[in-house]
Design goal:
By secondary structure, the protein is α/β, with parallel strands linked by helices. It is built from nine helices and eleven strands.
């Protein structure tokens, strides 16, 4: 029996007549990396914003750590770190000073700043202005900000978007380390199958707001029968939905 960190039940979000999230039942197992895969506009970001209580669902329920987000929002969000869209920071300040501001607001000791900088491999750049960072370094700083409260759940929306191959590899290593060596549950979205395949234990495929597939990565590979590529399988799953 799985211990799920995130469970959604018939989650629906509408924007006017447009249904962005359509009866989504997400199940994210504890301690694993869940890859949330779909094309741009498929509903990934909206689902993540619903999970983080940044917007409210029109219908359905969300449970995190086996508690309802609508009833235990503050308790839940204290245990969650996230990076949705671009990270927020002061470009003229160093990474250390950016984290120091957050640490003081949250009453977090300075030693934690050094720990998260080491985790995201920014220690040697800690005292340099963030405006001079590469995009990949800025993304890693965003993840450091998400990690400073030692979350049990990390939610990352397209964290490798726009990065060069080196930056992508750095983010992959970081995410894998957080799950395998620190026991963190990670929900990560992407529109690129290879990025999800490289890190995820479980995968959910969403298209036009509907969750079309959910399960272990091995199950998705099994569907291919070793004849189709995973990209072919993904296109078949999405194509089957679009033909309905």
């Amino acid at each position: 029996m799985f211990d799920y960190v995130i469970e959604t039940e018939n989650l629906i979000k509408r924007f006017g007549e447009y249904v962005s999230v359509d009866h989504v039942n997400l199940r994210v197992p504890k301690g694993e990396i869940y890859g949330f895969l779909g094309s741009n506009g498929a509903g990934k970001t909206t689902t993540m914003r619903l999970i983080l209580s940044l917007i409210r669902p029109d219908e359905g329920n969300i449970r995190i750590f086996n508690k309802s987000i609508s009833e235990h929002r503050r308790y839940i969000l204290r245990r969650v770190g996230s990076l949705i869209e671009a990270p927020a920071y002061y470009g003229h300040l160093s990474a250390y000073k950016n984290l120091k501001i957050i640490a003081e607001l949250l009453d977090i000791p300075d030693k934690k700043i050094n720990e998260v900088l080491e985790t995201v491999r920014l220690t040697q750049y800690a005292n340099k202005p963030v405006k001079g960072y590469s995009l990949g370094m800025k993304q890693r700083l965003g993840i450091a900000i998400a990690l400073i409260r030692e979350p049990e759940l990390l939610i990352l929306d397209e964290p490798t978007n726009g990065l060069d191959p080196f930056g992508i590899q750095e983010i992959r290593k970081l995410i894998t380390d957080l799950s395998k060596n620190h026991g963190m549950t990670v929900l990560i979205s992407s529109h690129i199958l290879s990025e999800i395949e490289a890190v995820a234990d479980n995968v959910g495929i969403i298209n036009e707001g509907k969750l079309l597939f959910q399960g272990p990565m091995d199950k998705l590979k099994h569907i291919s029968n070793n004849t189709d590529s995973l990209e072919d399988v993904f296109l078949k799953i999405v194509g089957r939905s679009e033909s309905l």
